[in-house]
Design brief:
single chain; about 300 residues
Length: about 300
């Protein structure tokens, strides 16, 4: 994809980058199963640190092998902001929020990320949202809510703890939006691999003190299956998926890229049907179709 970014013609670019965004959301959707497995053996902050430590080692090796130029000193704060928002805060807020937030309201609030991306992109990047895109955003959000709730809001009930958890989940959307906008600025000057490597280094560094709050952790007790899932999260979900997301952001409007995040609950339902034999109901299927239509309209 990166070769096409530099040499391909513009007619080919949109379709290929949309496919990349589809692959990214599919990988991120699959991580719900991986994380659920590993959390039985590793506490959340430590899991996040191990995941991105693996990603840092892989990306650092790529930089050395490819001999990519380093970021200029004036761009290091932006890279640190990317790591803080897209890696450290996003994972911390999500893990802590899920302790108290209900599954239904968490799914709905997490789906607000594309809305925040659209708002911040309009203010910072001056990306104009057309009426067709706005319609697509609303449709995709409605479809995502339908998938998350399975057509019923009966699971929604609020307590002070749940409200606090919901607030933290909502902030993950703001955090991801800030990351996406900040990354897009760096991608105007550097290759996606370089930007991702430096932001991952920063995010991993910020995660380390958070993992110390869970010390001691018996790493020797982690099973082979646990380590395989950690490597999956580090290499595919944190290196490959983040890299594709960054490359796509260099050629696709942040608003358009953000809409693809609405596909995550749809892909999660499909993965659950295949691996967990959880057959999606009518509301899930209808919501998935609405998300696809909304995503198509937002990308036009």
């Amino acid at each position: 994809m990166e070769d096409l970014h530099e040499t391909g013609n513009k007619r080919q670019t949109p379709f290929i980058y949309y496919l990349g965004l589809l692959l990214t959301t599919a990988i991120w959707a699959s991580t719900f199963i991986n994380i659920k497995i590993v959390l039985q053996q590793v506490p959340p902050n430590t899991l996040a640190f191990l995941r991105f430590l693996v990603a840092s080692l892989v990306l650092g090796s790529l930089l050395i092998i490819s001999r990519q130029p380093a970021l200029k000193r004036e761009d290091l704060p932006t890279a640190a902001l990317c790591g803080l928002t897209g890696i450290t805060l996003y994972n911390f807020l999500q893990n802590q929020g899920l302790k108290f937030a209900g599954a239904i309201d968490a799914s709905i609030l997490a789906a607000m990320a594309p809305v925040f991306i659209a708002l911040i992109a309009g203010l910072v990047l001056k990306e104009r949202i057309t009426y067709l895109q706005a319609t697509g955003i609303l449709l995709a959000f409605a479809g995502s809510v339908l998938v998350a709730t399975n057509g019923s809001l009966s699971g929604l009930s609020f307590t002070s703890k749940r409200l606090a958890g919901d607030t933290l989940i909502l902030l993950t959307g703001v955090s991801w939006a800030v990351y996406s906008i900040s990354v897009k600025r760096l991608l105007q000057k550097y290759k996606a691999t370089v930007v991702l490597a430096y932001s991952t280094f920063a995010g991993t560094l910020f995660l380390f003190p958070l993992s110390l709050f869970e010390y001691p952790v018996n790493l020797a007790a982690i099973t082979l299956a646990g380590w395989l899932n950690i490597f999956y999260l580090g290499v595919l979900a944190s290196c490959l998926a983040y890299l594709i997301w960054n490359i796509a952001l260099s050629r696709v409007a942040a608003v358009t890229a953000g809409i693809f995040l609405y596909l995550i609950p749809v892909f999660t339902s499909v993965i659950a049907a295949v691996f967990l034999h959880e057959i999606p109901g009518i509301c899930t299927a209808a919501g998935g179709l609405i998300v696809l239509v909304g995503t198509y309209l937002a990308g036009k």
